[in-house]
Amino acid sequence: MNKYLIDTHTHIDMLEACTPDEAIEFAAQNNVKKLIIPGCSPDSDSVIFPLIEKFENCYGMLGVHPSEAKSYNDEVEQHIELAAKHPKIVAIGEIGLDYYWDKTFNDIQQDVFIKQIKLANRLNLPICVHDRDAHKDTFDILKEYNTYSDVVLHCYSGSVEFAKECIKEGWYLGLGGVITFKNAVKMKEVAKEIPLEKIVLETDAPYLTPVPYRGKENQPAYVKYVAEEIAAIRGITMDEVAEITTANAERIYRI
Question: How many domains are there within the chain?
Answer without folding.
Answer: 1
